[in-house]
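Design a sequence for this backbone.
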């Protein structure tokens, strides 16, 4: 059971290019005894220095500033100190809705009203309640077979609940290149190829902010670092289901009598292709590589059961393989041979007709000559 802690004194930085706005906001915050305003600045660069070298918990940040957009500054601040709570302040309602309905802690509209500010302060209070046991970071497995979700050490599933599809794709893209620095230009070309450079850059900053907030909310040990004009996702203590599956498979092949149970489990664990639920073209190469590994496992399991005289069990693996690889003539032919050996000519015909239909409809071709000749000879004998 978690224990409620005490309220932490909050150290606040105010950033706004308008001096009058800074002083006005300063007066409003003085009503709160548990808030210490450690600095006010009109210079975004000074804000970065203060965040790096000063004890700051919360930043109230204007959006429309001439030297540096508030969204860009927010991301740089989070890079320096990921645990910062940032509250945006803007005079533009439309911009606020667009930018901060993506899991920001809060936003305030100018002129700031006392009752609305009170709501923000209450939210900050909840964030700063220190707890003991609940602050432990659980050990997560990040699942990317079929779709993205987290599974903790108690086998409980947590979804990311992304606020935008772009946030989901940005996270998936950086995860795809985990441990590597992905240049900002590369991200823009892949995710925002249809936007001009300035708009795409702003969208990237907005979306990156959301991704980081989502990871922070989940208390998961995944960090996104800004390095040399690029981003690198580091998974820390988090494991990936695909990595675990591939490592276990490579270490245990080939299929033998002493490993058959382990390989059956590995076959069952593969419950979907890599990021299968998403239409990400950039993921296709890795998806096909992992599918090819799974196909090797399926074929070896089928061959093992053929060698041990379990033909129906072997056929079972070929059928499942055909569901994933409906145009694979080798698998279809092996399945037909098994049914022929079992004396099921009708099942052979069904398999052959289905293969012809798939190849014709999708690829505009017919089965290769060897399969056609084998099938014709079989039909002539029956």
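Sequence:
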């Amino acid at each position: 059971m978690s224990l409620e802690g005490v309220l932490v004194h909050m150290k606040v930085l105010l950033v706004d290019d308008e001096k009058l706005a800074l002083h006005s906001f300063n007066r409003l915050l003085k009503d709160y005894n548990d808030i210490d305003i450690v600095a006010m600045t009109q210079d975004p660069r000074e804000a970065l220095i203060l965040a790096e070298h000063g004890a700051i918990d919360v930043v109230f940040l204007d959006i429309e500033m001439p030297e540096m957009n508030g969204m860009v500054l927010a991301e740089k601040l989070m890079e320096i100190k990921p645990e910062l709570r940032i509250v945006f302040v803007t005079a533009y309602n439309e911009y606020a809705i667009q930018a901060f309905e993506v899991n920001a802690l809060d936003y305030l509209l100018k002129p700031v009203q006392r009752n609305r500010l009170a709501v923000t302060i209450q939210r900050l209070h909840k964030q700063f309640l220190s707890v003991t046991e609940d602050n432990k970071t659980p050990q997560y497995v990040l699942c990317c077979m079929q779709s993205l979700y987290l599974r903790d050490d108690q086998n409980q599933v947590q979804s990311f609940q992304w606020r935008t599809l772009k946030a989901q794709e940005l996270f998936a893209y950086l995860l795809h290149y985990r441990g590597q620095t992905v240049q900002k230009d590369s991200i823009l070309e892949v995710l925002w190829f249809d936007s001009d450079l300035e708009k795409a850059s702003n969208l990237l900053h907005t979306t990156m902010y959301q991704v980081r907030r989502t990871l922070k909310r989940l208390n998961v040990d995944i960090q996104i670092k800004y390095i040399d004009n690029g981003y690198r996702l580091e998974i820390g203590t988090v494991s990936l289901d695909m990595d675990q599956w591939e490592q276990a498979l490579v270490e245990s092949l080939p299929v033998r009598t002493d490993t058959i149970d382990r390989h059956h489990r590995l076959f069952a664990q593969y419950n979907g292709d890599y990021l299968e639920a998403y239409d990400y073209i950039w993921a296709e190469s890795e998806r096909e590589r992992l599918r090819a590994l799974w196909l090797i496992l399926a074929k070896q399991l089928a061959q093992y059961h053929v060698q041990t005289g379990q033909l129906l069990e072997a056929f079972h693996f070929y059928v499942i393989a055909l569901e994933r690889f409906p145009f694979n003539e080798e698998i279809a032919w092996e399945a037909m041979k098994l049914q022929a050996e079992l004396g099921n000519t009708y099942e052979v015909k069904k398999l052959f007709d289905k293969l012809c239909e798939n190849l014709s409809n999708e690829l505009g071709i017919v089965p290769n000559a060897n399969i056609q000749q084998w099938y014709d000879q079989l039909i002539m004998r029956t």
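Residues 255 and 263 are 7 Å apart (CA to CA).
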